[in-house]
Amino acid sequence: MGCCFSCKDDGSNQGGEANERTHLLVDPVSNNTTIQRVSSEDYSSCARSLPKKTDEQSALNQILQETATNVIDVAALDSHVLEQHEYHERVKHYAQKLQSGSRWTVPRRTPCLLLDVPAPEKFLSAEPLSVGNLDLITSAVSKANAALQELKVEHKEDLVVPFRIP
Amino acid sequence: MLNLDRIPDQVGYLIMAEDGAVISSGGELENNERIADIISGLISLTDNVDLSAFQLAEGFKRISVTYDEFAYVICLSNKKVHVVKRRLVPSGSAEVALA
Fold this sequence. Notes:
With 166 residues, chain A is mostly helical.
């Protein structure tokens, strides 16, 4: 308010007696114009003095906004608000993953050769392997063993063949 | 609880979980982790046996590991592996038999 008043005051006595706004060093070439220029400048600045504050505020806000858009806040990345369709998409995706995952992570237990029997004592106390069966197994195993011993690799042609590179 | 003592010629027993952990043991096999490891290894090995090579499709009830003087008889019941060591009349050499 005081500024406005001084402005008016300044305007009224322009080119008149010296006050705090008149230049101490007078331009020798164009005294008049200088004063004119100064006063007009002052005046315009005075006229803008009221909205100046909000301008400054908005400019600061603009800077703040720009900085905010330029800064990647890593911590705030997670708090990204999901759009509805995005949310549904994710639900679908996760459900799909979960389904395939559950199918994958629950592998059927490899079937054990042994059956789960209700009364193990019966089988544990049953007669041990008969001599006949044992002989059969022994002879079969020794035959298989002998056959494996006789297994030989017949060398017929070179495994590594050099290509004829011209 | 099973009465494994009534099994004829039994000299020791082991009851293990399917993962090979010993649940209870007695006789010559008391706290015998080594045998338990071997047996669970054997059981996992038998998973590779092709059942289609045999006439019976449903599987086996007993595995016998037969030595000259004794045999380990292995049975699965209630998801627990029962192992009994039994004395034998001497005959033949060490074999693994499926019955």
